[in-house]
Specification:
By secondary structure, the protein is an alpha+beta fold. The protein is 26% helix and 22% strand. The chain contains 13 helices and 23 strands. Strands 2, 6, 7, 8, 9 and 13 form a six-stranded mixed beta sheet that branches. Strands 3-15-5-4-14 form a five-stranded mixed beta sheet. Helix 4 runs antiparallel to helix 5 and helix 4 runs antiparallel to helix 6. It starts with a helix and ends in an 11-residue tail after the last strand. About 3% of the residues have low confidence.
Length: 464
């Protein structure tokens, strides 16, 4: 008997194979070919039937239906390449992968093997093409994708069920783990394999933080005059913390793939809504975790705090952000001697390695992101800010630090960057604080297209 999609996923989780690619990757400039002209209108009944048979064969585990795949490929409808991409995400065997790649070529007229990243991951290469082309989804795409994905994790059903959501299902992929649906304060490991949020962790004073080396990175927040440091090694394991700081309730997601920790004031939602309890869904959108609220089942854009589905989306919720500074522990505690830090065991009796990911994300995105804004290197660290007028601004972090250390101002339009507790903070020219956080450039630029980029030479680098 051949394995079902769910069995394949279980094997991938046990093997720790989340990305479907190895770590020997080097970002390479690749000019995506001209986008194929997509079809328009409804699918032919025969093609619709073939799609259904193809997805059902993948879910049932009897091997891909060859006749159905051939009928889909023969349609020449580039929109159907999105379902080919989805199937590639879960394929382990070489022969089915080759057949799916051949189908992609038939549908788009493009051989993805010209992409230097193809040998590392056919799925990532194929999906990058589709994102870069902004290929439209075929009719009924959400429903077809749901058939495949809900065979992996039934807990994703509320996201797929919301037909009026703002989730762009083309950009959603499986992140290699399942949904974290544990209740508040449950500190047991996820039995089926999720990234477990850390709720109300134990905090200690700086004097008890000697277990964490001074040169290691922390993510620091100050709310209500209360500073707290979150060690990166603990955040790499949990990727989400819910706690109270300075009398405010915070949800702090850390997207390891984006190099981005953000702090949301979850108690600022409209009246009548419960304070969100943020969790990791196990899904990604362009290499950024798709978080969700356990209380309402609403999906949220981790990078912007905007609700995408469910009751929070119905109320047009956008979570309020506060600044997160990325600094070394030595710098942070020197600037904030009264700081607290998450306890060595997280307050749950767990042991944490100092470098649990081993530099996994240092060499470029390991999940699909499409084309990347070329103004800065893909993995350049930037401090991102939304200016008072609503426009996004990015400051290359290393260059900004060097300029400030040399006594030079770092200002672009309505935003000024200043040195904080070892990190960088943003404010208006008249001193009003602005929420800011650090991330990889590819992440900031794709979620804030059209962002302005500060240059140390004083020249603004507008979007091309």
């Amino acid at each position: 008997m051949r394995p079902t999609v769910a069995a394949i996923v279980a094997a991938l989780i046990l093997a720790g194979c989340g990305a479907g690619a190895d770590d020997e990757r080097e970002p390479a400039a690749y000019p995506f070919p001209e986008a194929p002209a997509p079809a328009d209108g409804p699918l032919a009944p025969a093609v619709e039937a073939a799609l259904g048979a193809l997805v059902r064969s993948a879910v049932a585990g009897g091997g891909l239906d060859g006749q159905a795949l051939a009928a889909v490929a023969a349609s020449g409808d580039a929109r159907l390449a999105w379902l080919v991409s989805d199937l590639l995400r879960f394929v382990q065997a070489r022969e089915p992968e080759k057949r799916l790649v051949a189908a992609f070529e038939s549908l788009t007229g493009v051989d993805p093997r010209a992409d230097p990243s193809f040998p590392e991951s056919a799925w990532r290469s194929v999906t990058n093409h589709l994102i870069a082309w902004d290929t439209p989804a075929p009719p009924g795409y959400r429903e077809r994708k749901a058939e495949l994905y809900l065979a992996v994790e039934p807990g994703w059903e509320p996201f797929f069920a919301d037909a009026g959501s703002d989730i762009d299902w083309r950009l959603v992929s499986w992140g290699g783990v399942l949904i974290d649906d544990r209740r508040l304060g449950d500190d047991e490991p996820c039995p089926r394999g999720c990234i477990p949020a850390l709720d109300d962790p134990g905090l200690t004073g700086a004097e008890d933080g000697g277990w964490y080396p001074d040169e290691r990175i922390v993510f620091g927040v100050v709310v209500g005059g209360e500073p707290v440091a979150f060690p990166r090694n603990i955040m790499e394991v949990h990727e989400m913390v819910n706690l109270t700081v300075g009398g405010r309730r915070l949800g702090i997601p850390y997207c390891t793939l984006c190099g981005s920790a953000q702090a949301y004031l979850t108690d600022s939602v409209p009246a009548g809504l419960a304070t969100p309890l943020l969790r990791t869904s196990g899904l990604l959108s362009r290499s950024n975790k798709l978080m969700y609220d356990l209380e309402t089942g609403s999906a949220l854009d981790t990078f912007t705090g905007r609700a995408l589905s469910g009751p929070l989306h119905d109320r047009r919720v956008v979570l309020e952000q506060t600044t997160v500074e990325t600094a070394t522990w030595g710098e942070w505690k020197a600037a904030h001697p009264g700081t607290r830090i998450v306890a060595e065991d997280g307050g749950i009796g767990r042991e944490y390695e100092l470098d649990p990911l081993g530099g996994r994300d240092d060499d470029g995105p390991i999940f699909p992101v499409g084309d990347v804004d070329p103004r800065l290197p893909v993995q350049a660290q930037v401090v991102g800010v939304i200016a008072p007028g609503g426009g996004p601004v990015a400051f290359p972090a290393d260059q900004a630090r060097a300029a400030l250390a040399g006594g030079e101002p770092v200002v672009l339009g309505e935003v000024e960057l200043v040195a904080g507790g070892g990190g960088l903070r943003a404010r208006t020219p008249d001193g009003e604080p602005l929420a800011a956080h650090q991330s990889f450039w590819f992440a900031w630029s794709q979620f804030h297209p059209g962002t302005d980029v500060w240059s140390p030479l004083g020249a603004r680098r507008p979007a091309g």
